[in-house]
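Page 42, continued from yesterday. The earlier attempt failed because a stray header line got pasted into the input along with the sequence. Redoing it now with the clean sequence only.
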Amino acid sequence: MGRRARFSTIGGTEVNAQRSGQKRRFSELRYPYYDLAVSIDVARRLFGERGGRVTEDGLAEMLGTAKAKSAFQTKINAAQLFGLLKRDGNALAVTDLALRIVKPRTPEDAAEATVEAFLSVPLFDAVQKRYAGNPLPPDDGLRNALELDFGVIPKRVPDAFATLMRSAERAGVLYRSGGNSYLSRGTGVGEPSRPDQPPVQPGMQQLVLPKVPDAGVPHPALGGLLQVLPDGAKQWTEAERSRWLEAFQATIKVLYPTEEEQHAAGQ
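This time it went through. Structure tokens are written below.
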């Protein structure tokens, strides 16, 4: 009897760890075929045109498609996966999360809810956690990682990659600094998604960061970097600390250029 394949667990789903000579298996973290912007549009139209609750037939009519078409069901599945649509008896209804986006009480609430919708997707949440505080691989490298590290079936990798990146852009969690791309868990207005702040390590001086005017919070790019500081239970390696410092310095340079740098750039 052959050896059993070994697996690593990511986001609660087992993914093939793969060893030479082992048979490959795929166990996908769920992701939608339509991106976040499409799902938000479905929720916005459902609330605006039908009061937020409708039968499947009514929703199909509203979207100008047939209920039996796979594209229609796929749109429903995507909106449900983002947490924006739910089944209510024989009807479909917008969720409280969707209302925070399409009818927000404050801009901050809409931004936070949009990030929450993005992170509701298991694959997107797992990718963000894997690369938290570190640059994303180049596009081809990230596509390879989706297949090898996250268990996406090869023929679906292009769709998963495109949906991930478009959704991250819409959620405001994808930012670029120093030639690298990063995924943040920030709220989109600069505030980390968790309220607790990382403790200052012994021998380190606490940093006081510049604030966004009238917002009272750091810039979102800085908020994303602050969130991944070690919490005291885990110590960084020298390489990890160096990478974080390089990302921090590059972000500061982009966000707050000196007068000389602005002059050189022709600003």
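Notes: The two ends are 69 Å apart (CA to CA).
Reminder to self: strip header lines before submitting.
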